[in-house]
Amino acid sequence: MHHKLVSTSTISRHLHEYGYKNVLPQCTHMLTSDEKQQRVQWAKKHINDDFNTTIFTDESSFQLFRNTVRRWAKNLNQEFKCSPKNRQKVHVWDAISVKGILICHTFRCNLDGPYYVSILEDYLLPAVTSE
């Protein structure tokens, strides 16, 4: 039995020579270049605004079993990762101001118009009126 040390770059180079590629699952960009530019323009336009009476809200989702592990593959279209049928997912909605975090709300249902209105009524309004 031989015990030789081989560097990661050597292994990577040989795998590449054999036609493998180091890949992550395909994903889409969150913002297009135009959308990023529009946000920069908005920020420049409002750089001197007084945000003392402004509240920003946002929502995000967090999901278990997302594939973020890189691997070597020759046939990228044949690469699959098994995942549970019903993934564990939680959504977070929050509101912030210059004073800090106003409220943070977690939920599991899909965020549609009526539910968003209920979040504003049940969470944002009480947080704002208690200030």
From TrEMBL:
Pfam families: HTH_Tnp_Tc3_2. Residues 4-48 form the Transposase Tc1-like domain. InterPro entries: RNaseH_sf (IPR036397), Transposase_5 (IPR052338), Transposase_Tc1-like (IPR002492). Transmembrane segments: none annotated. It comes from the Eukaryota. One of its GO terms (biological process) is DNA integration. GO terms for molecular function: DNA binding. This is Transposase Tc1-like domain-containing protein. It comes from Rotaria sordida.
